[in-house]
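It is worth pausing here to work through a concrete case rather than discussing structure prediction in the abstract. The textbook approach is simple: state the sequence, then state the predicted structure, then interpret. We follow exactly that order.
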Amino acid sequence: MAKDYYGILGVSRDASAEDIKRAYRKLARQYHPDVNPDPAAADKFKDITAAYEVLSDDQKRQIVDLGGDPLAPGGAPGGGPGGAGPFVGFQDIMDAFFGAAAGSRGPRSRTRPGADAILRLELDLAETAFGVEAPITVDTAVICTTCSGAGTAAGTHLATCEACGGRGEVQSVQRTFLGQVVSSRPCVACQGYGTVIPHPCPTCGGDGRVRTRRSLTVKIPAGVEDGMRIRLAQQGEVGPGGGTAGDLYVEIHERPHDVYSRKGDDLHCRVTVPMTAAALGTRLTIRTLDSDEPVDVKPGTQPGATLRLRGRGVPHLRGTGRGDLYVHLDVRTPTKLDADQERTLREFAKSRGEEVAELSKQGGFFSRMRDAFNGHA
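Step two, the predicted structure:
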């Protein structure tokens, strides 16, 4: 451990050069071997001389002030292995070199910005497609009307914290390998604010805000999609001390539609038509989101065909125009026929040269297909 050279000479750490010289002369006359035959006096005199040698040299004294021992091996602060003082953080080291002001934070403000809030809003497909003004209810912190955000009761004011004197922090002195380190920490009495509230507002309890339920109206633009968020500036949480409110984000959730599915700005639906209508052709009336549209099914339409209605989808959120509507056709084949219907259908097939074989008969269509397959093999 580094020797206490100041203690050996019996002077304070802020002693002047003249004080150090005067203390050394006094002790030297007392413990010099020529005047003091005690064997212990010789060792004492050596320590006194070493202390004077160190403290009378500005550079060596600076090493001592940083917690080191210039006469120890290496002369480094701490006096070599094991000589370092307690562990200190980086901020304490900065304080040691630049003073406590280097890490000073000062009192915190009681007024701070509020947090953002988010609200889920469910809408129908027509509402997201064409837009709507939707009423919403939000539960957020708002400024306390009793104290206007000050947090104090009527007729009272904030008081300076007695523990820190209004600085919002307290300082502690710690002896380390760097010498005396002054570090600053937030004051626990006032939580770093530098002030206290002797008489809190009875409505908000000193927070400057209260929670309440509010009703708002949000304007949903045409063309929004599921998962999009709409920002309402400064409609979120009011900050402590009546600070500026955060933003409110309304997240859109689109309910599934009974008929249409949406892919971007395009709509898709499925329509079933009878086999005869697909063969002979027909005209359908498709009810879109905002109108009834006639659609022609051409004769000979095959299962899985798709009809496209341009500009009958969802309006584009950015720009003009709309997406398209795709009508996917499912051709329905009858599952049950009476005798007359079956006979008519067979005659129709025969007139087209299409053989309709029964599964129980041999040599029909499937057998010929099998023979053709084997022949190719």
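Step three, interpretation. Residues 117-254 form a domain with the Chaperone, DNAj Protein; Chain A fold (CATH 2.10.230.10). The first helix runs from residue 5 to 9.
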